[in-house]
Amino acid sequence: DFMQASWDIEEVQAKGIQHLASFVKDKSAFPCLLKCTEVITRAMRTHTGSLELHVEGCTLLLEILSQALEQGVMMALDECVASCLLHTVRKHSENEEFLSSLCTLLMMVSASEVAAENLRKVGIIPDLLSILRRFLHNDKICFSCCAVLWSLAVSENYGDQAVLESAVPVISAVLQKHLQNGVIAESACSALWALSLQGCVADSDYEPTAALLLDALRMNPERVVLVKNGCLALASLVRLSETAALAILLDSKGSGMELIKDEYHLHFGEPGLAEALCLLMNEMVQYDEVMLDMRSQKMEKLLSEIKLQFPFS
Predict the structure, then answer these.
(1) What is the rounded distance in angstroms from the CA atom of residue 28 to the CA atom of residue 254?
(2) In 157-190, which positions are buried (b, 16+ CB within 10 angstroms) versus exposed (e)?
(3) What is the pLDDT, as a whole number, of residue 6?
């Protein structure tokens, strides 16, 4: 009430946010704090020139959202809040330290389908791509932005295809830069999977994107989610073009089929990965030349192993 009575007074909003933040560690205050997100974002939106108020507001929202996720509470923030977050991103587009926190906040927000839809509506993707281009070296920003892009691109009804297509080279650059960082590579592979599902990969990018995904699998064989999502992304590419299938077979660093065998045996017993591998192989055998090559590499043996391992799936 104190904050709502004096929207135009910056000091009142700052003090209000600081006081609310003092309740964060009190678990019993959590239900009340959940109701304060719109008050916090309105304070941020009203006082666009105050970096300190934005930093404190963002930090408090992160705390509230973290607790919400821990307790399994999904916060479906409305379009007004999404618009405020976009405005804050644009206002501080050069402030790397603040953007690190802000992108983490966006990642948490986008976990809700409703909130992700609202972020799509306000048009945040070009801003995320701009941030990635500028701060490609920043691990935290790259991880968060790729996760947000995955949440936004995975929607079946995303309207602006050109925007999504422009994301592919940026995400590929992130993956190339951070191939050895399993956490970021996993996030980037997931984003590329979502984009390839939407048919956003250009014809000229089928081969390099497939090669890049294979590199990610080779560099991070122990990360089962990365391997699974990488295989799903490859399956989507192969569905679109035989070029991607041939790129997997003829990769300069070694046969993609041998890599698939190795990954399956490394994660023997993981049904999600086995399913992704079967989906990829099913797409590849749609092409006669590719199927002949797979036979010569004795892929039937691997399929028989999977069938024995998961007879009821």
Answers:
(1) 57
(2) ebeeeebbbebbbbbbbbbebbbebbebbbbbbb
(3) 92
- Give pLDDT, residue 76: 65
| pLDDT of the residue at 46 | 86
What single string gives the DSSP state of each residue in 151-210? HHHT-TT---HHHHHHHHHHHHHHHHHTTT-HHHHHHHHHHHHHHHHTT-S-GGGHHHHH
Closest-CA residue to 213 (of 242, 164, 268, 253): 253
In contact, 13 and 49? CB cutoff 8 Å: no
Below-70 pLDDT ranges, the chain? 76, 156-159
Q: What is the structure's pLDDT at 161?
A: 82
Show me where the domains of the chain are located. Answer: 234-312
Which pLDDT does position 108 carry in this prediction? Answer: 87
- CA 119 to mean position of chain CA atoms: 14
Please give the pLDDT value at position 159. Answer: 61
- Between CA 194 and CA 229 the distance in angstroms is 9
Q: What is the DSSP string of 238-271?
A: HHH-HHHHHHHHT-TTS-HHHHHHHHHHHTTT-H
Contact 147, 108 (CB under 8 A): no
In sequence order, the 6+-apart residues with CB closer than 8 A to the CB of 145 are 103, 106, 107, 128, 131, 132, 174
Token readout for 192 is: 């590329």
Residue 74 three-state SS: coil
The count of C-alpha atoms lying within 13 angstroms of the C-alpha of 135, restricted to the half-sphere facing its C-beta, is 22
